[in-house]
């Protein structure tokens, strides 16, 4: 019987270390999503005498920071490594929360939230990329959709717990919400410390390429792959609409005199629906993917239109449906994109999607806030739904015309 060679032993050891990234990534992502500020940040700013239009400006500035940092975050993750990107995501978030806690004017708040947004981009450039890289190295890439579904489930269960706790903590002190979130972020350094760096294995020569050259190559990857391009466009459109409406629902429900603890419960259930949808995303495999690509955005917009028209706390049921349906779609969308891009450009391609999402929110959010102040929030949300219909349907229709079965 032949004994394994030193090379085989070394490869086995590397694979074992890399495979540990999957569980460590669950912990890292869960802690980074365990934020208590998700459901109450607008209320916190309102308590500090910041108006809706100023809140819209703060959101626009933070989205601009996201947009400006997306490509660099992805490039840093691809060139310097997933571990470096993960550490930066934590350090920048802690600094941002600290500034928010001491801020008393719009510009300081804008700086704090901008840093938190930048932190999110480094996180986005890490968690999905390190998952796919680790599975590819260990020759388990076919399990990516399952692992990503589990990862989304962990993240959104963590979000749900954070949102549920936020209402109770905010009843006592809004400042405590940010203090607890800051401490949790520091704990995320523990799993990151044990990460095995995947970029060294998949692309040993990555340091010889400049960020500008790297970004240029990534744009060429997108340009020459229309499936990736249109899938990114669809994902961006869904994210912008979903994220904008979700943020304004804080105001939507509090205008109905919904108490903070119930508001926290509503958003907590929403996050559990997201987790359930991500976990059960494989159910969509039973349907023609081209039909799913059309159905998801249409059902999302219809549900949000009904929510805006209801003007009743019971309309939260539409929020739960959107959360479940959209989160079922994300792992499928991610698998289609990741399977068609090279490892050395993976984080940067995903960052381009986030960059476009930030640009969309930067434009849309203050417009919705302006219409909400001048007319009503329900009217503003309905206008967004109507405007988004052609924007989402165009890439979906183009994707239906393509062969989605081919892989890189």
Keywords for this structure?
Growth Hormone, Chain: A, 408 residues, globular, single chain, 80% helix, mainly alpha
Q: What is this entry, summarized?
A:
This protein is mainly α and 408 residues long.
Q: So what's the CATH class?
A: Mainly Alpha
Number of structurally distinct domains: 1
Task: List segments where confidence is low: pLDDT < 50 over at least 5 consecutive residues.
Answer: 6-10
The fraction of residues assigned to DSSP E strands is under 5%
The percent of residues in helical segments reads over 70%
Structure description:
It is a single chain. By secondary structure, the protein is mostly helical. It has one domain (14-198, 208-400): Growth Hormone, Chain: A. 80% of the residues lie in helices and 0% in strands. The protein contains 16 helices and no strands. The longest helix is centred in the N-terminal third of the chain and has 32 residues, at 106-137. It is globular and about 55 Å long. The two termini are 38 Å apart. The relative contact order is 0.15.
Write the SSE topology:
Blueprint: H1 6-33, H2 41-47, H3 52-79, H4 82-102, H5 106-137, H6 144-172, H7 174-187, H8 189-193, H9 199-202, H10 211-223, H11 226-254, H12 260-279, H13 289-310, H14 316-338, H15 346-374, H16 377-400
Helix pairs in contact: 1-5, 1-6, 3-4, 3-5, 3-15, 4-5, 4-7, 5-15, 6-7, 6-12, 6-14, 11-13, 11-14, 11-15, 11-16, 12-14, 13-14, 13-16, 15-16
């Amino acid at each position: 019987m032949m004994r394994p060679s030193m090379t085989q032993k070394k490869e086995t050891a590397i694979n074992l270390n890399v495979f540990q990234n999957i569980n460590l990534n669950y912990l890292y992502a869960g802690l980074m999503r365990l934020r208590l500020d998700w459901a109450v940040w607008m209320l916190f700013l309102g308590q500090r005498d910041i108006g809706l239009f100023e809140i819209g400006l703060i959101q626009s500035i933070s989205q601009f920071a996201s947009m400006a940092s997306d490509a660099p975050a992805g490039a840093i993750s691809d060139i310097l490594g997933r571990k470096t990107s993960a550490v930066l995501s934590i350090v920048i978030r802690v600094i941002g929360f600290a500034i928010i806690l001491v801020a008393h004017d719009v510009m300081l708040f804008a700086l704090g939230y901008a840093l938190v947004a930048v932190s999110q981009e480094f996180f986005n450039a890490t968690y999905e990329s390190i998952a796919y890289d680790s599975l590819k190295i260990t020759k388990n890439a076919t399990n990516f959709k399952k692992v990503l579904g589990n990862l989304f489930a962990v993240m959104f269960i963590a979000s749900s717990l954070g949102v549920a706790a936020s209402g109770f903590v905010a009843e006592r002190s809004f400042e405590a919400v940010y203090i607890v979130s800051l401490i949790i972020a520091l704990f995320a350094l523990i799993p990151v410390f044990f990460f095995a760096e995947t970029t060294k294995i998949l692309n040993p020569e990555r340091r010889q390429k400049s960020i500008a050259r790297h970004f240029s190559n990534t744009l060429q990857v997108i340009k020459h792959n229309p499936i990736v391009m249109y899938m990114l466009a669809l994902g961006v459109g869904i994210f912008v609409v979903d994220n904008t409406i979700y943020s304004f629902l804080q105001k939507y429900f509090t205008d109905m005199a919904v108490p903070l603890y119930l508001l926290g419960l509503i958003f907590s259930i929403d996050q559990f629906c997201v987790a359930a949808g991500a976990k059960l995303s494989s159910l969509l495999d039973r349907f023609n993917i081209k039909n799913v690509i059309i159905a998801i955005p249409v059902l999302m917009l219809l549900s949000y239109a009904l929510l805006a028209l209801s003007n009743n706390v019971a309309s939260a049921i539409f929020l739960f449906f959107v959360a479940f349906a959209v989160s079922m779609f994300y792992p499928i969308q991610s698998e289609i994109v990741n399977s068609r891009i090279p490892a050395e450009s993976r984080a940067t391609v995903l960052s381009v999607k986030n960059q476009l999402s930030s640009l969309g929110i930067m434009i849309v959010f203050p417009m919705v806030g302006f219409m909400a102040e001048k007319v009503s929030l329900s009217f503003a949300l309905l206008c967004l739904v109507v405007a988004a219909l052609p924007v989402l349907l165009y890439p979906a229709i183009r994707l239906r015309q393509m062969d989605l079965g081919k892989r890189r």
